[in-house]
Amino acid sequence: MPELPEVEVVRAGLERHVLGARVTAVDVLHPRPVRRDPGGPAGFAAALVGRTLVAARRRGKYLWLPLDNGDALTAHLGMSGQMLVQPPDSPDERHLRVRLRLDGAAEGRELRFVDQRMFGGLAVSVGGADLPPEMAHVARDPLDPAFDDVAFVAAVRRRSSGVKRILLDQKVVSGVGNIYADEALWRARLHGERPGVRLRTIQVVELLVHVRAVMSEALAQGGTSFDALYVNVNGESGYFDRSLHAYGREGEPCDRCGAPLRRTAFMNRSSYFCPVCQPVPRRRRTTPAPSA
Fold first, then answer.
1. Mind listing the domains of the chain with CATH numbers?
2. CA 147 → CA 10, 102, 152, 232, distances in Å?
3. Bridge partners of 115?
4. CB contact at 8 A, 77 and 64
5. Rounded Cα gap, residues 132 and 156, in angstroms
6. N or C, which end of the chain is more exposed by having fewer CB within 10 Å?
7. How far is it, in rounded angstroms, from Cα 147 to Cα 100?
8. Catalytic residue among 59, 61, 97, 194
9. Which residue in the list 16, 117, 198, 269 is annotated as catalytic?
10. Predicted local distance difference test score (pLDDT) of residue 105
11. Residue 216 is inside which H or E element, if any?
12. pLDDT tens across 168-177, in order?
């Protein structure tokens, strides 16, 4: 699934290529990607035609394009969604789902939503230009200037769940997905099952530093692309997968100590870690209650 760096690359591309463009026509080629829009395919299209795209914003993994009337076009890429800016004579992509025809600043271009697995989607959020209410529950991400480091450290240290699970909790911190959580934990020498309450303040602070570093480096390289599903608005892949130290490297030597990296099941996904640098936390023994 695209994570914060991949989504930010898409947002920046949209900001460069479609701001100031007016939507002249909307083609919904499959109803599923607009399933969350209360107006359905027809209402979705009607709400966009004639409107101008005035900004490109993001909260965690969620994107939205504010419109000139105070509404917003929201987007979530899901597992395989792509937002592509294409010339109108470009052949339709195999999994093209929604097409926005544009003029004005982006005259002669189309904004296309392509989604092979169709877990992503688009919708119009009424009055959502500043922050769509559908995204109000999502916490800020570590690259957001308004992110509250102190509140994050406190939230981690009062939770008994594993620190990786906390990193993936969008109500605590947004944008950190499976790949970058594993990478940051490897850099911090922390196992993902370490309970938050058993971490010292300095450990959480250092982990946050590594989260920011990993995502910033990935952003500079265009994100992480393991296949053709993860691309920017021009269809180009990112290259951070070549810099991964943990994720997807089961059995390969740790870049730090040489021990074979391991993979474990985690929330219907996988976690990758070094058993030497990131030792599995020992379970605390519970003292049996004295007999009467």
1. 4-135 (3.20.190.10), 149-273 (1.10.8.50)
2. 21, 35, 8, 25
3. 81
4. no
5. 27
6. C
7. 33
8. 61
9. 269
10. 61
11. helix 201-220
12. 999 999 988 8
Could you tell me which residues come within 8 angstroms of residue 39 by beta carbon, excluding any fewer than 6 positions away?
A: 46, 47, 124
Model pLDDT for residues 103-115, shown as the tens digit of each residue: 976 667 899 999 9
* Contact status, residue 224 vs residue 163, Cβ threshold 8 Å: no
Confidence band of 268 (pLDDT split at 50, 70, 90): confident
Q: Is 32 a catalytic residue?
A: no
Rounded CA separation 81/78 (Å): 6
φ, ψ at 34 (rounded to 5°): -110, 25
Structure tokens at 188: 């911090």
Please tell me the pTM assigned to this model: 0.81
Tell me which of 3, 8, 110, 183 is the catalytic residue.
Answer: 3
CB 3 within 8 A of CB 216: no
**Catalytic (active site) residue 107:** no
Chain centre to alpha carbon of residue 252: 27
Q: Is 164 a catalytic residue?
A: no
**Catalytic (active site) residue 269:** yes
Cβ neighbours for 106, distance < 8 A, ≥ 6 positions apart: 17, 18, 20, 21, 85
- Distance CA(284)–CA(282), nearest Å, equals 6
278 within 8 A of 185, measured Cβ to Cβ: yes
Of residues 220, 221, 213, the one with CA closest to residue 238: 221
